[in-house]
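Recap from last week: sequence in, structure out.
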Amino acid sequence: MEITTKLTDILEKSVEEKEQFLLDFINNNDLELTPGFTNTPLIAIIGLGLYLGLENHNVFNCVHSTTTRVISMWDSEFNRLWSYCKANNYGDWWKDEQLALKTYKF
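Predicted C-alpha cells:
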C-alpha cells in the first residue's frame, strides 16, 4: 500500500484507523519479531505508535496480532522498550516525513 496522504494526515484519524495504519506498516516493511532480534523492529513500531498518539495497549495488540511466535518475557520486553521510547521521544523521529518515507514503506 503506497502512502497517499501525509503522515500528519493520519494523526486526525480514529484510533481504529491508526491501528490499521500501524498494522499495514508492520506488514509492508516485513518487520519480523525474532527472539534475540526484536529491539530494532519494536523500536520502529513503538516510535510510530507514539507519533500516532496510540496508547501502549493499542500498539501491543497490533504487534501481538502480527506474530505467531511466542517470545519469552514478551510483556516485559515490550513495556521496557515502550517506556524507553516514550521517555526519549522516539515518536518525534516520525515528524521528519521525508526521512520516514526514505526509510520505510507505507
